Amino acid sequence: MGIRFEELDFRPTPMGDLSLRRRREPSLGVEVYEIKLDDDFLMSSLFTEAEIQLSKLGLAASPHDELDVAVGGLGLGYTARSALEDRRVRSLVVVDALAEVIEWHRRELLPLGAGLTADPRCRFVHGDFFAMADSADGLDPETPGRRFHVILLDIDHAPDHVLHPSHAAFYQPHGLRRLARHLHPGGVFALWSNDPPDEEFLAALGQAFTAARACVVTFHNPLQRRQAANTIYVATR
User: Fold this and answer.
1) What is the residue extent of each domain of the chain?
2) How many angstroms from the chain centroid is the CA of residue 112?
3) CATH number of 46-236
């Protein structure tokens, strides 16, 4: 049967205690990887459909034939891997504030780590996505001021449920307008949220982008034996 539960790593960080866990889910007969920050579950390999759809919906909205993509939030790597499956993607920069998460992928403690680190189009950047988005230098320290065709974000639980108070300003019109500077004309910003569509946030997106919509992504929750839903916001310049 193997080990039912194993903590692969535990680190104190400025944001809280970070842990990587692997466990056997007996009701499903599968191995599950989970990342926790204090008592918050940041990611579970049981629920990845919305993270995959974040990438698919964001990239599908781009009219360009070749894409430079930035991802805010590495997590278990499902958004990044989905982006790399699109043949139009020529480069991918993945920004994460937690160096430990980047290290887990490089050490191949996570199932997708080997594939992400081996792909020459993919590069990890240790940094604060929100501070970088607010700055003129942008999301790629190797090329200050660089623009992207698509920016994907999956860090906070929702625009009004953030992991750190410093993130809150990003979701206001002025913060979103500053992010939009880092997109090419015709560029796309897509955001994952755990909550239902928020009309107030859609209005904020509408002040910073030419068009914005909320897409509800449904998926099966095998533990609760019911359908669950997340929201993907897609905005274009």
Assistant:
1) 46-236
2) 14
3) 3.40.50.150
